[in-house]
Amino acid sequence: VETIRDALDNWGREAILVFFLTASWRKPIDYSEETMTQAAARLETLRNAFTREAAEHEESGWQAFAAALDDDFDTPAALAVLHDWASRGQLELLRRGLAVFGLESLAERTEAPAEVVVLAERRLQARAERDFALWKANKPATEDTWWESPLGRGRPGWHIECSAMAEEIYGPAFEIHGGGLDLVFPHHENEVAQSRALGHPFAQIWAHNGMLQFTGEKMSKSSGKVETIRDAIDTWGRETILVFFLGGHWRKPIDYSPETMAQAAARLETLRNAFTREPAAHDESGWPAFADALDDDFDTPAALAVLHEWGSRGQLELLRRGLAVFGLGSLAERAEAPAEIVELAERRLRARAERDFETSDRLRDELAGAGWEMRDGSEGYDLVRI
Fold it and tell me: Alpha carbon 241 to chain centroid distance?
């Protein structure tokens, strides 16, 4: 147990507020050192916006913030708007938006005593040396990649490498830059700083995804908590992995474990099994609910819920189209059973007709062992791959 007082002492009131803003009030939220560190990083990004020059005020931007809160008090979407304002220098809008959540203190600048300024400058200098290397000196004993330069023999720093590669491929201004939440500082902030120092706009939209975790712990080589994509595909199959990722919002951490993958496999089979039933009369009016979910910050859990609703109501044409959006069109395909499987099914059908239930059960088990399920109906049976 950690009390509210403990959390306040550890993280501060503002970081806790930002933490709660990152999740919809209707959904569970994970409290951990990692998620609080992410909230603290977001807090500093918002605070640091007020250290830069303000852009020309655009009052029209307020509507996006108000619309997010009108939409079921969608604080993650509202927080994304705050970050957008911060990145574009819309400081007056940012100040007003922060005040809505009791975070107006982020816009306040406090004059520090002289001795604190000296300490801060020393820390900034050390931090710059560690975190903002444009050129790294070559270490002959451990590194074999280097170039000669006016700065000496070495190689580009991590951040300048990525700025250079991005601009080489996409140009000095491009639409979307992705990456994990753990890269906001120092990597992405440095990419932006060094690119804009050259007058290059760089990325217009930043999409920071949550971490893949092993039951609450970040998956990483350093921790030894790693399972390769090939291992996961061999164990669970491509479709199950897709459904697993659809079940979590892309901005939030997601737990990878046997339990969560078994849940994804069960959801997959529910969607596949919908196509073994008769379709209902087509209702095209159901499509906007799916489209709206994806338009709302690509909310795949909400879209997945719509898919399940269509499956339960027999809206198979909508379901087929929706699954295809996520590369899951194969779930709508009926696999043809081989001749030997059909023969087992016919023998079981005859055994049931003769009320030989012992033989019928044995043949059912044989079918299951071969990966097929015989589903009896009023007009015969269906063979479904399991």
Answer: 14
DSSP string covering 120-142? HHHHHHHHHHHH--SEEE--TTT
CA-based max dimension of the chain: 97
| Sign of the dihedral through C-alpha 327, 331, 337, 341 | positive
pLDDT per residue over 164-196, tens digit each?
Answer: 999 999 999 999 999 988 888 778 888 888 888
Q: Which two tokens stand for residue 46?
A: 């918002």
Alpha helices (H) along the chain: 4-11, 13-21, 33-48, 62-70, 75-88, 91-100, 114-131, 158-170, 189-197, 229-236, 238-246, 258-273, 287-295, 300-313, 316-325, 339-353, 357-369
Report the SS3 class of residue 78: helix
**Rounded to an integer, what distance in angstroms lies between the CA atom of residue 295 and that of residue 325?**
13
Q: Do residues 175 and 204 lie in contact, with contact meaning Cβ atoms separated by under 8 Å?
A: yes
Write down the pTM of the prediction: 0.54
